[in-house]
Design brief:
9 helices; membrane; cell membrane; MFS; Growth Hormone, Chain: A; transmembrane helix; 214 residues; mainly alpha; MFS_trans_sf
Length: 214
């Protein structure tokens, strides 16, 4: 069913394995952020939804320039630095409180959307950099499967991490819930930072056939 020999290809292996860890770290955000906004900060659902829009808008904007970024810096540098940036950005949500200015939350959302979009584009495209045409179908199947698994695991992990920090404290306790969410963001941020280590195994010229970097 799965051609595991493809993992011998460095770019494919790093994309799938490193991407799995990174996506798992980020997979909990769509669940944790609305919790932070609605339960932790006491915002209504409509306002919480609007605060998710900057991430989407920034992601669409990054799609326009991601190709040029990869061509200029290369996959190795982009994936290492960008993963670190994602870890820092996720950790910044641990500083968001009811007194945090709205524009600061929007700026964090914009940064998160930019970095996440660049990360997904980079990880998805480098997976096929050294794949032969006869193996492209199998590589696509394996990549998409691991992507779906990582996002599902990320959602479950984010929930479990928050529940672990909350402990036996009632969920109606706004202060305790906010504190648990802050600790969860810090934990996810650290895990994302550590996932950058997997991208250090790339070589500076890896993916040049796709990015066009000379």
């Amino acid at each position: 069913m799965l051609r595991l020999a493809l993992f011998r290809i460095r770019t494919f292996r790093v994309s799938v394995v490193g991407g799995f860890i990174t996506r798992m770290s980020m997979g909990g955000l769509p669940f944790l952020l609305p919790l932070l906004y609605q339960v932790g900060l006491g915002m209504p659902a409509w306002q919480s939804g609007l605060l998710m829009m900057p991430m989407a808008l920034a992601a669409m904007g990054m799609k326009v320039i991601s190709t040029r970024v990869l061509k200029h810096f290369g996959y190795r540098q982009v994936l290492v630095v960008n993963t670190l940036a994602i870890g820092v950005t996720v950790s910044l949500y641990a500083l968001v409180t009811p007194t945090t200015p709205l524009f600061v939350i929007v700026l964090i959302g914009l940064a998160s959307g930019l970095f996440n979009a660049l990360q997904f584009t980079s990880m998805n495209s480098i997976a096929y950099a050294d794949i032969d045409s006869k193996d492209s179908s199998m590589a696509s199947t394996m990549t998409s499967t691991f992507q779906q698994m990582s996002m599902s695991f990320g959602l479950a992990s984010g929930t479990l991490i928050t529940a672990w920090y909350l402990g036996n404290v009632p969920q109606s306790n706004q202060i305790a819930v906010t504190s648990a969410l802050h600790h969860a963001f810090l934990t996810i941020g650290v895990l994302t930072l550590l996932s950058s280590l997997t991208f250090w195994t790339l070589r500076p010229d890896d993916g040049a056939s796709v990015s066009g970097k000379e």
